[in-house]
User: Fold this.
Amino acid sequence: MFNKNNYGMGILLPVPRFIFFCLLSLASTFFTYNWNGLIIIGSIILIIYLSGRIYYRLGIITSIVAGFLSFIGNIFIHKSGELLLFLGPLKLTAGGLEMGALLGLRLFFMILFAFAYISVTSLEEIYDTFKSFKLPIKGQIYLMIVLRYIDLLNKEFTTIKQAMAIRGINWNGSVLEKIRGLRLIPVPIIFRLIGHINKQTLSLDNLGGISKKKLKIETDSEKIIELKDVAVTYNLTKEIEENDIVLKDLSLNLIKGKKTILIGKNGSGKSTLLLTARGLISKSIGQYKGTIKIYNKSIENHDLGSLSEYLRIVFPSAAHGLVGIRVKDELSLSLFRSKYNLGFDKKKFISILEEVGLNENFLEKKILSLSGGQQQRIALASALISDPEILFFDEVSGQLDPIGKEEIFSSLKNISNTQSILVSEANLNPKDFDDVFFLDEKKLHKVDQNNKNFISILKKSGRRVDIITELYSIFKDNKIYENFDYLLKKIKDNQNNEDLLNLISPKKYKEKIYNKKILEISNLSFGYDKKVNVLHDINLSFYENQITSILGANGSGKSTLSLIMSKALKIKKGVISIKKNNRIGYIFQESSYQILSTKVKDEIAFGPKQLKFDEQHIQDIVKRECKRFNLNPEDNPINLSSEDLRKLTIASILAIDTDIIIFDEPTNTLDENEVKDLFEIITQLKELNKTVILISHDTYLSWKYSERIILLKDGCVIADKPKNEIFKDEELLKRCNISIPTITKIYNEMTGLK
Assistant:
């Protein structure tokens, strides 16, 4: 009955604790003006005191407001007893006053008990409690989704506060300043939750929802998916018209056991194609015309939930594809299609977690507490555990560190020959696939890999054509590292390799000396709770007009460190000193997390307004940044492309005259052309005398653009050196789960540094 590892009312196990609060709530509905009322008051005060959770203040405020409104309402409804006050049609009587006070107090206590229960009970415990009452499967799924939304609400609230703190809202300031910040939160949080609802709906459909229909198929059919003359639009209000079409004339056959890859620029429609082939495009997000067949049966005649037994999508963002509270809940839900229950198969769970580079310790972890890369691994495990015959992968490696990418790609290569996969992934080599399709100008084209134009098609698709890797394999296989003339000829034949040409030229790398210190971190340690620290004794300095990359595996503490530097997270131990009048800007990994307004001009002006810039100066800033990034001030950020949305986030940070700008995984989900555009912007920032800090998994870009590399591992600084010193130490990089760029391998081998 008792849990010795908790505190306060948490010592009661979940089920007895739930019953206890239900009894208190029930008692509150019967109390009058006697001793049991005092007992209830004493109990609730004790419970709240012992809980010490964030819901304390919210519970008190909500209870007082609800109780007061109930009191006011009831004193004028009940007419019995002596007349005390006459206000025209409103009469206040002694009986009404007594009844209003009684019902107001009852409502006050009932609401307060609910918040007290939440204060001493985690969402996981609430879920387990109701599950132990043999809640029907539908109820379990709905409860899981509701509880996850409570968690999402808390996370979004925190993220929005962080975005506001970066742009001028002082949450540690006066009460008036806090109120000013809180009144700005509703709009962004509503838009984000609506976005989550749409994503979670797709995720649940992808998992099979609550359908119990069994799909009958012809498993011996070679053609498992067929698209013929398909056109797609996101316009739901009318029939498909030419101007609204995002994809047209789609024809695609997926053959059993074959591995197929989609290539194309960002925004070309690869994700849309995957959703269409899965039958999800018509689920409140768009419509199509043409023929879509899965296992020789029209998609319109399929139960989409039952299809999850055979076909699963892994979405590009883990937040898009996961619906569970804990890792074990997500994996259980993935088995629902085959077992019709939310059973717990620990052995199977551990096995699939190990396959994606995780371990048993993750089973009990809350999904929203994990890093983006760790969540993405969970999404992969969730798809693989049900062993579907068809798998769609939509840019699944974007949030993974280099070692994680290698592990996942290895898992993809090892998928059974009986399984069919359709992949949209910029980091995979098309030569590892049976079929290659190029999506361009809204149309799909099959590509012959032996075609002499194949490389140019790859370039057109926005992929990084790594000729350097090809050169490396040539030199390694033929043992000709010392043949500089041959190497130079190869490089000159491929104009895309200027970096390598510069690298092996006689020019000697000279380390720049930076004297102007702009930011200093001393003895910084940080944890999201009292028990576990994420960062340990961090000591770092940053200098004016320097580009620094912070590298590390998923969960190493990179994002946490950057949020602390930007004052989005409060320091608990240590000191951060910044040069007077300097500001730090932070570009979120997910651009939408940073958006706080419904118009581009308002988004850019948000920070300057909070910092009380002159109105004319604000208008000038908006014009300047819109011109710089070619943005329409009247556009709604929701309607912007991913590239323009990222530009808007940078513009909103530049608008507050930042001297230090932190980019958190800026190249995730970007194609090569978009990456080039981004780093043109970063180069311009350096020319504007800005200090740039890159949180990145892309070692090639870190090598190319950074002057200094900081390595993080398990919340500790492992190394802080010039980039050439870092990238010649392969063992050090391996310790931090960082893969060495191929270009650096060539350099090391040719110069005898390895």
Summary: The chain has a mean pLDDT of 78. The radius of gyration is 29 Å.
